[in-house]
Structures are given as C-alpha cells and as structure tokens.
Amino acid sequence: MKNKDLLVAALQNGSVIDHIPTDKLFTIARLLELEKFVEPVTIGNNLESSKMGKKGLIKVSGKFFTDQELSRLAVVCPDMQLTVIRDYEVVEKREITLPAKLINVVKCANPVCITNNEPMKTYFEVDKLKGMVQCHYCGKTQKIGKINLM
Ligand SMILES: [Zn+2]
Asked: Which domain, by its residues, includes 120?
C-alpha cells in the first residue's frame, strides 16, 4: 500500500483535499480554520505525486465542506481535488472549481467601492479563461491567486 492510500483509507467519515500545491498548503489550512477542529486532522506536505511532482494533502474527519467554504479555497488555488468519504466509501470525488459568481468571498481591492463602505455582501463575476474576477459594483478586476478574501 502506498503512502497516499494509507492516508485516505483511514477515514471513516470526512473529506480529503488533495493536489494542493506545496507552497499553498498552509494558506489552505488557515482558510479552513483547521485549528478549530476537534476531530482528527491530517496534514501532509511534500508527498509524492505522479501528476504534480510534490503535493500537499489535508484530511479531516467528520467534516463536509460547504460550497461557500470550497469557493474560498478555489479562489486561492484552483484545481485541487475533493474526496468525500462516508462509512469508508468514497461517495464523491471532484475538482474544486470556481463558481461563475462569488458572493461574499472576495474583498474588493478598490477602497472607494461601495462594498468597502457599506455593510453589504460583495459580488464578483469569475472569468476563468482570463484568471480574473471582477467586482459587480465598481468593475475592479483582480487576478485569481492574488485576491484578498472576506
Ligand atoms: Zn468593487
């Protein structure tokens, strides 16, 4: 059994986030607020990957991420993989992709934007081809991977 199989196989119920670039692992761990979890959390980095060379992986017991939580991750790092496990069975395996719209995920970089001056949700449209997000209110664009989150 390979190292990766061991890490995934031990989970009864929970989620695995895989294919994390090694330089993004701790950013992702912080975004997920893993320090607040009480059930077992496994963090691996610099694991061998046939696809990426080296990669990071996070495994959390008893946690199923919401779409909102996953879109926060996708803004920082597109193309990670999510595996959901229930009763030791993989019930879902997919790429964590950016949705077309991000509601209250991204903070607008324009200081005079209304979203930075009124108590309201931010709203960004995503252009995956250009790798940009654009504020619905002021039109300011930001590059995916270099974005401030709410
Ligand atoms: Zn704006």
From this structure: 101-143
